[in-house]
Design goal:
The protein is an alpha+beta fold. It is built from 23 helices and 30 strands. The longest helix is centred in the C-terminal third of the chain and has 36 residues.
C-alpha cells in the first residue's frame, strides 16, 4: 500500500511541480536560496521517510499558491495595459477633403481631428469648434460628465456624449495623459517603499537561516539519540512552514493595488515610497493662484461716484483697457462684453508703466489704474470704501476723469469649488494648513479666512517660498506642498511630498512633483490620503499577520503538532491567499464626498437686470464665487453644498431692485 501511495505521489509531483522545478533551477543558477528551493527540498526529502503523499500535497498546494500570485500580478500588469488601450487607435483627421480615418500615432501636434458623439477621444487636445459633455471617468475618476466648450482641454480616452466637436491636438499619442498615467504606474512599481526594501533585504537572509534551522532540527536526534524519522519530518515541516512567501507578498501586493486604484482615480503617484510618506506628513502648504483658485480674474464689486452709473464705470474702463494687454484689463473688457456695453474710441492713449493708463474719450481725459497712481494724481479718495476693499482682499482698479474719482472696480481670482472641501477634509484628518503665495498679503488673508486656513503668508517670491518650506520642515515631521506654477517648483522639490495640480501645472512642476492630480479637483488630494493610509494599514496587517502566524506555526512544528500538508495549506498557501485578498480590498475604496462640479454652481446668467429701470449689475460674489439663484433670492454657493462636506453659509440677497423695488432677473 505504501508503494502505491508513494508512486501516486511521484506522479502528482511530476504533474504539478514543473513550474516550481524550473524556477528552483533558475534560482540555483543565480546562487539564490528561495522559497522554490525550500519547497522542492521538502517535497523530495519527504519520500525518504515514506511521507511522499504529504510532500506531493505540499508541492501541489504551493504550485496553486504560486499560480494565484501570478494571477494577481497579471491583474496589475493588465491594469496598466488597459490604461494604454483606453484611447482608440484611429482618429478622424480633418483635411481639405473632409475627415479621414487615420492611425492615432500618425497625428501630429497642431492637427485638427473630429470627435463624433459616443466616440472616445484618441488624443489630448483643445476644442476649437463646438461644445459637448465629456465622460472623463477613465482618466480623472470624475463620475459626472463635464461640459467643455471652445478653448477647453479634453483628454484622450474621455467619451464625447452628445455633440460633434473639433479639437486641435496638443500631445502626440505617446505623450497623452493616459500614456503618462501608464508610464508613471510602471515607474512607480520600481520606486520601492522602505517596507519593500526592508522585506527584500530581510528575505535575503531569512531564507538561508530557515534552511540551516531545518537542518539543525533534523540532526537533533543524532545529537540526543531521539527518533530520527520524527525529527527529520519536523525539519521538513519547518522548512515549509517558515517559507517567506506571504511575507514577501505583504507589501508589494498592497502597493500595486494602491497605485492602480489611484491611477484610476486620476492621481499619479511616482513611487510606492510616496504612499508610505503620508504617515509622516503633518502640515499641507498651498500656493494660491491656480491651486486654491482657478487662476481666472473676475470683477468682484463696482463702486460708483459723482453721478455715474455702474454700467458707465465699466464701459469707460473697458474702453481704456481695450488697448491694453494686462490680465486685469482683459477681465474688465470681458465683463463689458458680457454686459453688452458700448466701447468708445480712445485718443492719446498712454500706458504709465506699473501704475495705470491715460486716454481721451470724446475730448475728455480719463485715468485708470492703481490706488497709488490716483494718490499721486492728488485725487480725493473715499476712505471708508478703500478700507472695505482692503478688508475684502480684492484688487482695486480706480477710474477717474480730470476733476474727480468716478468709480472703483475690485478684482479677485475665483475660488475653486473643491478648495473648502479639501481644507475641511485635511483638518478633519488632523493636518494643519498653510497658504504661501506671492500675492498681496490682504488677498491671502481674505482667501485664508474664507477657507479657514491656519496661517497665510503673502508677498513671497520663489526663494522666500523655499525658505518658508525649510522653516516648516524644522517645525514639523513632514511637510507637503501643493502648487502648479513654475515658481512653485523649488518648494515642491524641497518639501517631503510635492503635489502638482496637473490640469494647470507647468511641465517643470509636473516633473518635480511626487504626486500629480490629473484634473483640477482638489478633493483628489483627500482621495490620495485615504487610499495611502488604507494601503499602509494593509501593509502593516499583512506583515504582522505573516510574522505572527509563521512564528506560531514554527513553534507548533518543533513540538510536533504540525503536518506537512497543513503547513503548506494553511501556513503558506492559506496565509498568502489571505494577504492577497486583504490587499485587494483597496480596490473597494469609495470617496465619501459627493461629486460637485462647477457647472452645478454656475448658470448661463452673467448679469442682474431690472427690466423697469433698465439697470444692469454683476452677480455679487460671496466666499470667492458668484452667488447662486435659489427661489426668489441669491444665496452663497456654499449653501448648495451638503453640510456633511463643509459648513454652509447663510448669506442671501433678495432679488429686488434697490432703486425701484421691482423684481430683478438673471440674464
Amino acid at each position: 500500500m505504501k508503494i502505491i501511495d508513494q508512486s501516486l505521489a511521484i506522479v502528482s509531483i511530476f504533474l504539478s511541480s514543473s513550474g516550481v522545478v524550473k524556477e528552483a533551477i533558475e534560482d540555483i543558477k543565480n546562487k539564490r536560496i528561495t522559497a522554490n528551493i525550500l519547497m522542492l527540498i521538502a517535497g523530495v526529502a519527504s519520500f525518504f521517510i515514506l511521507h511522499g503523499q504529504e510532500g506531493a500535497t505540499a508541492i501541489l498546494l504551493y504550485a496553486i499558491a504560486e499560480r494565484l500570485e501570478e494571477l494577481t500580478a497579471d491583474k496589475s500588469r493588465n491594469a496598466i495595459k488597459e490604461l494604454l488601450e483606453l484611447a482608440p487607435d484611429d482618429a478622424l483627421l480633418k483635411t481639405d477633403k473632409g475627415y479621414e480615418n487615420v492611425p492615432s500615432k500618425e497625428i501630429r501636434i497642431g492637427n485638427i481631428i473630429g470627435i463624433k458623439p459616443g466616440m472616445k477621444v484618441p488624443l489630448d487636445g483643445i476644442i476649437v469648434k463646438g461644445g459637448s459633455y465629456f465622460d472623463e471617468s477613465a482618466i480623472t475618476g470624475e463620475s459626472i460628465p463635464i461640459f467643455k466648450k471652445e478653448g477647453k482641454e479634453v483628454f484622450a480616452a474621455s467619451i464625447n456624449s452628445d455633440s460633434f466637436v473639433d479639437i486641435e491636438v496638443i500631445r502626440e499619442s505617446k505623450n497623452t495623459i493616459v500614456a503618462q498615467i501608464a508610464e508613471s504606474v510602471k515607474i512607480a512599481l520600481q520606486n520601492k517603499s522602505v517596507h519593500e526594501r526592508f522585506i527584500e533585504k530581510f528575505a535575503k537572509y531569512y531564507t538561508p537561516i530557515i534552511l540551516l534551522s531545518s537542518i539543525f532540527v533534523m540532526i537533533i536526534p543524532v545529537l540526543f539519540n531521539l527518533n530520527f524519522y520524527d525529527w527529520f519530518y519536523r525539519g521538513l515541516v519547518l522548512l515549509v512552514v517558515s517559507c517567506p512567501c506571504a511575507l514577501t507578498l505583504s507589501t508589494p501586493l498592497a502597493n500595486i493595488a494602491s497605485l492602480t486604484k489611484l491611477a484610476r482615480e486620476g492621481i499619479l503617484v511616482k513611487g510606492n515610497k510616496f504612499i508610505e510618506k503620508i504617515q509622516d506628513i503633518e502640515v499641507f502648504a498651498f500656493d494660491k493662484t491656480g491651486t486654491l483658485t482657478e487662476g481666472k480674474l473676475k470683477i468682484f464689486d463696482i463702486f460708483h461716484y459723482n453721478g455715474i452709473s455702474k454700467s458707465d464705470v465699466v464701459s469707460v474702463a473697458a474702453s481704456l483697457e481695450s488697448l491694453s494687454e494686462h490680465p486685469i484689463g482683459k477681465t474688465i473688457v470681458n465683463q463689458a462684453k458680457k454686459m453688452g456695453l458700448p466701447f468708445q474710441n480712445v485718443d492719446e492713449f498712454e500706458v504709465i508703466k506699473g501704475r495705470g493708463i491715460k486716454g481721451k474719450i470724446n475730448g475728455e481725459f480719463f485715468y485708470i489704474g492703481s490706488q497709488k497712481f490716483f494718490e499721486d494724481l492728488s485725487y480725493e479718495l473715499p476712505i471708508d470704501d478703500i478700507i472695505e476693499i482692503e478688508n475684502s482682499g480684492t484688487i482695486p482698479v480706480l477710474l477717474g476723469n480730470e476733476q474727480h474719482l468716478l468709480g472703483i472696480l475690485t478684482i479677485r481670482d475665483v475660488l475653486r469649488v473643491s478648495a473648502p472641501i479639501l481644507v475641511k477634509g485635511l483638518k478633519k484628518r488632523g493636518f494643519e494648513t498653510i497658504l504661501i503665495s506671492g500675492d498681496n498679503q490682504r488677498v491671502c488673508n481674505s482667501i485664508g479666512a474664507c477657507l479657514d486656513i491656519d496661517r497665510a503668508y503673502g508677498e513671497h517670491l520663489p526663494d522666500q517660498k523655499l525658505q518658508e518650506i525649510q522653516n516648516l520642515k524644522e517645525q514639523y515631521k513632514g511637510v507637503a506642498m501643493v502648487g502648479d506654477g513654475i515658481n512653485d517648483a523649488p518648494a515642491l522639490a524641497l518639501s517631503d511630498l510635492g503635489i502638482a495640480i496637473g490640469a494647470s501645472a507647468t511641465d517643470i512642476t509636473l516633473e518635480t512633483a511626487d504626486i500629480i492630480i490629473i484634473n483640477d479637483d482638489l478633493k483628489k488630494i483627500l482621495t490620495y490620503i485615504d487610499i495611502a493610509k488604507k494601503t499602509n494599514k494593509k501593509v502593516k496587517e499583512n506583515i504582522w499577520s505573516s510574522i505572527i502566524i509563521k512564528v506560531a506555526f514554527a513553534i507548533l512544528t518543533v513540538i510536533g503538532f504540525m503536518s506537512l500538508w497543513v503547513a503548506v495549506g494553511l501556513g503558506d498557501m492559506g496565509l498568502s491567499l489571505a494577504i492577497m485578498l486583504n490587499s485587494m480590498t483597496i480596490f473597494r475604496y469609495k470617496f465619501l464626498y459627493k461629486e460637485i462640479t462647477t457647472e452645478q454652481l454656475e448658470s448661463e446668467s452673467k448679469l442682474i437686470v431690472c427690466s423697469n429701470c433698465e439697470t444692469k449689475d454683476i452677480i455679487p460674489q460671496h466666499h470667492g464665487r458668484d452667488m447662486v439663484k435659489k427661489g426668489e433670492k441669491l444665496v452663497c454657493w456654499k449653501n448648495i453644498l451638503s453640510s456633511e462636506e463643509l459648513e454652509t453659509c447663510d448669506e442671501e440677497l433678495p432679488l429686488h431692485c434697490p432703486y425701484c423695488e421691482e423684481k430683478l432677473e438673471l440674464r
